[in-house]
């Protein structure tokens, strides 16, 4: 088996700005987003937290172009935007090896980029491994590599580590934090884990009933430990209890 090439330089991207004005979305008669207004700077990392049904995933789907909306939704400045979504399920194709899963949608000459992405997530040497031969954490690493190999301007993460055990999730937090610093992509993370939100992002939005109730800036350097975010976590927990 030929070893995967080692490439130099990070998988960088240019983050894009997001501008939402009076954005609404509904499923039938049920209103999910209510006149939501939000601005996100290029390269900013934003977490969306709140109880189920508050509109977090709907907002992510709207940004990905998967949910119809009313109002203004502007991503970037008009040029094509490379957007990638990572879900809680890895959604790997079981008949393809790790490298081929990561390379899906890439031009053939860019397969070297797929190999580099696997290297960046710690899976060098597992290029030919099929999904059933990998652990849950390793499969999520492949899914993350697949998203980053496309050098996204906008990275949308929908509870990507929710199904992992605590130790694996902590490893993925450290890995993702490093890779987000390297890539520069604008990132929105949906999570029910307040510690995850505060460790990985620079801004936490609390959504309830389709509205933003809290917009908390996290002015702490990366990487962050649990002790760094305890006070902010307590504040958010109080807000969440008030919404329940």
UniProtKB/TrEMBL annotation:
Gene3D superfamilies: P-loop containing nucleotide triphosphate hydrolases. GO terms for molecular function: ATP binding; ATP hydrolysis activity. InterPro entries: AAA+_ATPase (IPR003593), ABC_transporter-like_ATP-bd (IPR003439), ABC_transporter-like_CS (IPR017871), ABC_transporter_ATP-bind (IPR050166), P-loop_NTPase (IPR027417). PANTHER family: ALIPHATIC SULFONATES IMPORT ATP-BINDING PROTEIN SSUB (PTHR42788:SF17), TAURINE IMPORT ATP-BINDING PROTEIN-RELATED (PTHR42788). Keywords: ATP-binding, Cell membrane, Membrane, Nucleotide-binding, Translocase, Transport. Signal peptide: none annotated. This is Aliphatic sulfonate ABC transporter, nucleotide binding/ATPase protein.
